[in-house]
Backbone:
């Protein structure tokens, strides 16, 4: 079991060995035990205090000690977008992918969608799927491109990170800052899920405005692990994602050797069941922005680089209201996944582990069966229960990768769910 420190964006201090953490200064001339001090900056040095994210790490060896990277030939589906391919405005949907036997978390990563200009311009987001059955042992991964939200759908994960160990079950999410190295093991023997890789500004909690001081994801429910390290010499590979591509080097030691750290740039986990859901108690279906867990702002206020949004269990009580999500076209682009249960705008075909895409200005909403049922439903209070869907919503259009477009998991006729609506009948 791991001990966790609670809060979002707090300045934490933690040491796995008593006396390892310097007091009163960040870089003493000789840190305790001969540890090496290193600053990990997640924002520009000069970012305003409220935005500034950095931590100081005290480790067995400096992370600067490594030989040159060469191209990594594993993880064949962990790819950048093909910008040369024409982008059709089609709605798309993928079923769950299966694990290839003998594949670990990293090598199973399958990029489905990439939005925005990408890592070099620090804009946009990618959506990946994983399905694996093998532990990462003598190797670690790091994304230099973006911050990761890991969303398990089936099977627990253990994330051994530079800054602590995170035990993660379906229903929880983990947030791994850009640049933090980690490896993944599978306590249940296999695992499947989603990863959103945020190339833009770090995720933060959304402002609450008239909601007030409480609600949605509350800061105290985010859990950051205490310092943990492994003292391992010998063969150890580090795979780094950089500019959308993967690179490898041999370290000769585990890079997960941080004995103590302090700061506000750190991985954490969050249990989606702790989300304090807000909804209407009168009429109309509110915009799904009320379900925002975390947001990465863009340069335009109120227009996110990416929002991470959930559709949790909740009471539906609205009167004279079409209760499921309405038909709409959106300047923002939407990728959706399903962790468990059923989603209230789709009668079937959108199963746990699936992923759907509704890009900028593509019409979407309930399928025919969901529309018919909701249009004639007796509007008593009703609880949507046993479900958890999520959305990765971006101001940038998503480009499906070639891997995604060629995948057997791609629904050949997703458009069919909107086929067969009866025509409205005007009077006379
Ligand atoms: Fe939508």
Residues:
């Amino acid at each position: 079991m791991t001990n966790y420190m609670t809060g979002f964006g707090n300045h934490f201090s933690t040491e796995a060995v008593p006396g390892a953490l310097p007091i009163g200064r960040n870089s003493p001339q000789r840190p305790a035990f001969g540890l090496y001090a290193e600053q990990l900056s997640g924002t520009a040095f000069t970012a305003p205090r409220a935005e500034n994210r950095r931590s100081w790490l005290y480790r067995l060896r400096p992370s600067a000690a490594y030989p040159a990277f060469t191209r990594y030939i594993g993880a064949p589906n962990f790819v950048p977008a093909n910008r040369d391919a024409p982008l059709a405005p089609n709605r798309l949907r993928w079923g769950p992918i299966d694990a290839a036997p003998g594949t670990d978390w990293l090598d199973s990563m399958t990029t489905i969608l990439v939005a925005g200009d990408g890592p070099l311009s620090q804009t946009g987001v990618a959506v990946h799927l994983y399905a694996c059955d093998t532990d990462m042992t003598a190797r670690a991964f790091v994304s230099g491109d973006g911050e990761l939200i890991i969303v398990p759908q089936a099977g627990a994960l253990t994330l051994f990170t530079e800054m602590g160990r995170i035990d993660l079950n379906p229903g929880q999410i983990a947030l791994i800052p850009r640049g933090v190295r980690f490896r993944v093991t599978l306590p249940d023997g296999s695992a499947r899920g989603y990863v959103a890789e945020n190339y833009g500004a770090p995720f933060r909690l959304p402002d609450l405005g008239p909601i007030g001081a409480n609600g949605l994801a509350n800061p105290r429910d985010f859990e950051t692990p205490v310092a943990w390290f492994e003292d391992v010499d010998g063969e150890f590979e580090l795979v780094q994602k950089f500019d959308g591509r993967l690179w490898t080097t041999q370290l000769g030691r585990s890079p997960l050797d941080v004995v103590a750290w302090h700061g506000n740039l750190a991985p954490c986990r969050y249990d989606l069941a702790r989300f304090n859901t807000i909804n209407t108690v009168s009429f109309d279906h509110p915009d799904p922005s009320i379900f925002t867990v975390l947001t990465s702002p863009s340069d335009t206020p109120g227009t996110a680089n990416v929002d991470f949004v959930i559709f949790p269990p909740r009471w539906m009580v609205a009167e004279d209201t079409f209760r499921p999500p309405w038909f709409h076209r959106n300047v923002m682009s939407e990728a959706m996944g399903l962790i468990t249960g059923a989603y209230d705008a789709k009668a079937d075909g959108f199963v746990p582990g699936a992923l759907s895409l509704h890009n900028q200005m593509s019409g979407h909403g309930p399928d025919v069966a969901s529309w018919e049922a909701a249009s004639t439903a007796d509007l008593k209070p009703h609880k949507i229960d046993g479900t958890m869907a999520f959305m990765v919503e971006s101001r940038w259009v998503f480009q499906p990768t070639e891997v995604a477009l060629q995948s057997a998991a791609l629904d050949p006729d997703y458009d069919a769910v909107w086929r067969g609506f009866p025509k409205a009948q005007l009077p006379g």
